[in-house]
Design a protein that fits this description.
Shape: globular
Structural class: mainly beta
Distance between the termini: 34 Å
Radius of gyration: 13 Å
Oligomer: single chain
Strand content: over 45%
Number of helices: 0
Length: 122
């Protein structure tokens, strides 16, 4: 599975961004996809994860982003999205898409990661 993120950029506090992550390759058995972030000098953390297929989806969010970020998936396009509203300077980080990891970064042996997209809020 290959993952390619896009949509990052620079935005002022209070602004919005929408990240996309497109999966290619052996995508038929993907159950869990999510967004994770890592700020300079900090450990990588979970942001939002979506589990399931078709209409049986479960979304989980980190407390820091609840009510501001929304994760969604377009299975037909093999694409994961993260709509980020009311952005804060503390949201500044490299954002990564991953397959096979829980919100708490417990990852399956076959987990995959994208290269990341930078989000800067200032």
């Amino acid at each position: 599975v290959q993952l390619v993120e896009s949509g990052g950029g620079s935005v002022q506090p209070g602004g919005s961004l929408r990240l996309s992550c497109t999966a290619s390759g052996h995508t038929s058995n993907i159950w869990s996809m999510g967004w994770f972030r890592q700020a300079p000098g900090k450990e990588r953390e979970g942001v939002a994860v979506i589990d399931g297929i078709d209409n049986e989806l479960t979304m989980t969010y980190a407390d820091a982003v609840k009510g501001r970020f929304t994760v969604s998936k377009d299975s037909a396009k093999n694409t994961l999205y993260l709509q980020m509203n009311s952005l804060k300077p503390e949201d500044t980080a490299m954002y990564y898409c991953a397959v096979g990891c829980s919100l708490t970064l417990v990852c399956a042996p076959g987990a995959y990661w994208g290269q990341g997209t930078q989000v800067t809020v200032s």
